[in-house]
Each structure stands twice: as structure tokens, then as C-alpha cells.
Amino acid sequence: MSHEKKTKTHDSGKELKLEDALKKLSEIVKKLEESDCELEESLKLFEDGVELTRHCHGKLNEAEKKIEILTRVSADSFETKNFDNE
Q: Please, are residues 84 and 65 in contact by the beta-carbon 8 Å criterion?
């Protein structure tokens, strides 16, 4: 689907950052809430919003996998463990 490329990259070809995707998603929500869009435009905005939401969810999952937890081994010693959400 063509929406995949729009959410994954900017015009420059770089991957869309989470913050930028959230900003675009916020703009879409605002436009849908405040304007009298025609049905076709509303559907297009909704589709773009769904793709942005999926992109954000993927970015958050990536970040979660990278998280490490510091665990106290002794009074003055810590070790790191990979985050395991189970």
C-alpha cells in the first residue's frame, strides 16, 4: 500500500521519527475534529492516521526492546539485564 512509504520515510528518504509521526497524527485528528471535510477527504485522513498509528506502535515496540533494567546485585553494585516484558 502506498501509505506504508509515507509513514516510513520523509521526502528525503529518512525514516520518520516517532515525534514527527505523532505531530502529523495530532494534525490529522485536529483537522478531522474541526473541519467539515468531505467524505473522501475524511476517509483519506483516517487511513493516513491509521498508518501513522501503526508506525508509532512499531517505533514504541522497537524502543521497548532496547530498554535495559538496572538490577542491584549488592549494596554498591548493579548489573544490567535486557528488558523482558513477559
A: no
User: Residue 52 has what pLDDT?
Assistant: 97
* Residue the block writes with cell 535495559: 68
Q: Facing residues of 15 across strands? A: 9
Helices (H), 1-86: 2-8, 18-34, 39-66
Whole-angstrom distance, CA of residue 44 vs CA of residue 12: 23
pTM of the entire predicted model: 0.65
- Residues 59, 7 contacting (CB under 8 angstroms): no
pLDDT(6) > 70:
no
